[in-house]
Amino acid sequence: MEGESNQKYSHHGGNFGSYFRQKQEKLALQDDNEYSKKSNIFANCKVYINGNTDPPAIILKKLIIENGGEICAFLGRKSSATHIMATHLTNQKIKDFANHRVVLPEWVTESVKLGVLQDWTKFRTIKIESCFNVPSDKVLVVPKQDPAALNMNIIDSPGTKGDKVRIEWILNHRLKINCLNKSFISDYFNQSRLHFMSTRKLQLRRKCRTYQPPLFPTQGSERTLIHVDYDSFFVSASLRSRPDLSDQPVCVSNGSSGSDIASANYKAREYGVSNGMWVGKAKQLCPNLICLPFDFTEYAKCSDILYDTLLALNPLRISAISLDEALVDISNMADEAETVSQEIRRSIKDQAGIDVSIGIGSNILLARLALKKAKPKGQCVLSPEQVGEFNIRDLPGVGRQVQQKLDKLGIEKVSDLKSVPLSKLNSAVGNALSRKLHEYAYGKDTDDIRTLDTPIKTVGIEIGWAIRLISNEEVAQFVFNCCEELFSRLNAVNAYCEMITVKQYRKMSDAPFVAPKHLGHGHCDIASKTKKVNNKLTFEELVEDVMFLIQQLNCPPLEFRGIGLHMQVKEVESEIESREEPARKPFQSRIKFSTTKLPPPVTPTKQVLPSILPKPPPPKKRFTVTQLFQDANDASYTSQASLNARILSELPSQTRRQILLNEDDYLPSLSAPSLPLVTTDFLGKTSLSELRKLLKKWIDSCAAPTSNDARRFFNFIRLSITEDTLWARAAKLVDWIKVLAKDKPEWLYYHSLLYEETQKQLLAKNKATKLF
DNA sequence: AGATGGCAGTAG
DNA sequence: CATCGCTACTGCCATCT
Ligand SMILES: Nc1ccn([C@H]2C[C@H](O)[C@@H](COP(=O)(O)OP(=O)(O)OP(=O)(O)O)O2)c(=O)n1
Q1: CATH 3.40.50.2300, applies to A216-382
Q2: What is the ipTM of this complex?
Q3: Active centre residues of A (catalytic)
């Protein structure tokens, strides 16, 4: 795998890692037989010996191997070397070896002498004394209290003392958190609340889009909307296991001073603590503030409860605002909006144990403001005349900046908006927003709930934490890892890419090198570059384009603080709808669907006429909420016999996957179809390389796997991935398929299924290991 | 004059 | 010890074609 992927990306002209990868070690490895095992001091150590050493490499090698260690002949990008041995390093090598343990030969000789493995940090090659000519009492160890004492902010030209001090600072922090680690991105995302919320919202959006509402005669434009939201969501969820704290000021956060408060309870808010505030500041306002940790699994469960409950109502429309918040059109039960709301709140509270508030109104604005008024633990109906009393900050689209601008015009309350001429408003906050605000002042809102859940337009990733890089090579390596992440996201949605945007956080010139938040991005300039791309974007092209744009942005590695990679996309579904593409997906076309003419294109964002869809679930009767829960999991429409490609593509991916993996076998393309499935082997092959060869033959032989083959291998992977001894091999095989599947959409899709499944299983096993 | 790229701002 | 500052969207403006 290593070899192939190197070849594969070699046309990037050594942009990244080539220095390591291509380098052939001079040290000749002779036969290993002449060594006699003496101890296990260096068990699990793999040492790469760099250049001339004292004592010479041949001696060190003998010592290491005889005492249970291994020698690496190469230093690859994903090399398994645990230590690099060197007596002397050039400045370039100091950078290149930044994220390695670089040790002096004495580490080996001392360890052998004392019979115990010595702490490598006591034998660093990269030390201030030897490399930077800076007095040793000044640096290396990060001071506990005052990082600024490190004097990171020396302003000088690159390559001088200040840079070296900064590099040293970075190297030290790397030992704990290293953004170049293969698993960094997935590790980070697994801990990031904002990432969790964003991805969760995406899923919910999809869920809401595929929801099929009941038929209901629309009576004019009169609507009844409810805005449903958990009260102080994260902290309420976390407090369920700590009821003893419920009357204390409590928040959910990661660490101490510079850590974001995700959610503060109402008690804490009395002190002025708010969501998004740093813990340090909050503690000043409220010294007794208690911090609880995140529990994403629980948040996901509660989120599901909320959405399942609302969907079980059979509303006319549901729109995902966030994981804890939804906007629901219940015009079909308008008369009972209040009692329905009571029921929803009681039911969710029963299931999740968290208070829910609901705002009821005839448009989106009124529902939102009603919710604001209802909180906490309440519900409220709002009419247009009542909006005047709210603060302008409560209005959608009014954040900190707009609030400041309006403040200068003397506008504080929504009612104040009426007295300011539109032209004045216009020049302060722009054309679109001023019109909107003017409407809001009268409780009007022309936005339609149906336009909220539109098809996705961009897919992107951003990382703005722990990015500390010291060379262009490292920048390239990190960006490459980001590309992998982005590409897998593109594969996860059914879309093709039209444009790529690279966004870069660059430390402002007057900002301190050490950011106020630990490993935060600090005060940054943000620049971006965009490039149009070929529709059928391959991974290599993506990397190439992104590298090109990064190069254009031309940020010194030491100032690189964050990155965003975004793709402007078109969802593929709409393409299938508008043009009948009979065999676009062999996978899908093999499904025996009825030959009846496809209905005209229907997108969920337009008025949907359920009657033309294949047997939607029958409109359910007015509910008692508990009754409806039993129906909530009803998947009757997925079992309909008459499927066609378009409808298939609109199904929730879970369902769709089920169908794909259950459809009849087609042509067996593997020669030995009847071998039994055993977890440890697949068609008799157990070793990684044998399995890779098998996969290569298989994938090269056809454009798409047959369903039977697909299912068998899928099961093989699925079973392996939960085994402690097998999961790493399975993960590598999935990775391998991605490489082989290049330019084969069916295989790429198959890969995405495998990927999804393995990720899920790994996460479930708490082996949050990044696969790719 | 419309299209496009870069950027700010907002929400949760 | 620290800390996990994401991501999709809209709209404005300057500059282009
Ligand atoms: N800056 C923010 C804002 C919100 N959230 C998370 C935590 C919240 O619990 C959740 C929902 O956000 P809300 O704005 O709905 O706030 P709460 O639910 O915490 O409180 P409220 O009762 O005001 O809705 O999103 C976050 O992590 N960081």
Answers
A1: no
A2: 0.98
A3: 325
